[in-house]
Amino acid sequence: MKICYVNFRDRNSSHFISSMLFILFLCTELAFCGTEAEAIGVCYGRLGDNLPSPVEVAAMYTSNRIGKMRIYDADQETLKAFQNTGIEVTVGVPNEKLPNIASSQDIAKQWVIDNIQPHYPTTQIKYISVGNEILPDTPYTANLFPAMKNIYSALQSMDLQNQIKVSTTIPMSVLNKSYPPSAGTFSPKITPIMQSILNFLSQTKSPFMADVYPYFAYVSDPTDISLAYALFQRQTPNEVGYKNLFDASVDALIYAMEALGHSDIPIVVAESGWPSDGNANGGANITNAKIYNNNYIKHILSGQGTPKRPNQILEAFVFALFNEDLKPGDITEKHFGLFQPTKAEVYPVNFTG
Ligand SMILES: *[C@@H]1O[C@H](CO)[C@@H](O)[C@H](O)[C@H]1NC(C)=O
Ligand SMILES: *[C@@H]1O[C@H](CO)[C@@H](O)[C@H](O)[C@H]1NC(C)=O
After folding, report:
1. Which of 215, 219, 288, 332 to mutate to test the pocket of ligand 2 (most atoms within 8 A of CB)?
2. What Rg do the C-alpha atoms of the chain give, in angstroms?
3. pTM for the predicted model, two decimal places
């Protein structure tokens, strides 16, 4: 797996063709030789009134060798712009659509007919995240699992359920306990719904999608959490065996799933990132953002996995492509971008690790 991995990332060298043939050979030999770890993903948040067109954005993904893109809806113009790019796309069912989709199989099917069917497979839609951060507690919590099932059934009726996987994206606040990672457990309040969702993901061979932000953990507790631990700069493991907060967070989630009887569900890190402005003294500055995101990408592309799942492919996305001027909430929310709306980089990022 490691060998495949290194060679996949060799595509900018003159050995590309021979590497690809070599990989082809390996992949026929090794059933677990996946193709998805070759590239990092970047979330294409579109909450800005000054952003480039989707066609320009697709060109940015291609020229920077960003292999995966996540959007938060199923914007038709965007899905069209990414057609025939080979870029794997994650689309979202917006939260406010969940009550209708949960209540009616016909509405769910119509959503897939309108939003997915016209684009697949010309646009390589890989995952549908039904809702974003619905758990642990939003007005849509009760709609989540029925909506996931209805979207799945709709895909099944078109025989697309093996190509396009249905999941949902959760924040780390679904965990009741996350330290040490081996004590990871879900909040008791959402255990029943988590159990249903995990059973579903296991049956449908779909991943669980999580937003993992060491930045927020660090700013909420800078006395107990060191900046070096949050920025992947710690050299030696801590007393529970972790060198960085990212791995500790992902593993806490894996342990929580295990506690509900599921040790086989892959995690996709649907968002992670660091703001470059908005709280400079608290660590939200360009220096730290550049260090975090470059180290994060390198960590993901190294293929080392986490201590709980060593050497396993971890698909992951950086949040976000652009600074988004209309993003609500804390000022830092507007400064997670790797690029300005002008397409100028906020700081240099190496997307190939
Ligand atoms: C974790 O769950 C227990 C109940 O099992 C509760 O007493 C405790 O407050 C919870 N902790 C958090 C951080 O939610
Ligand atoms: C960025 O924040 C860190 C604290 O997290 C601080 O030590 C550093 O001086 C800041 N850098 C700039 C350029 O503001």
Report:
1. 288
2. 20
3. 0.89
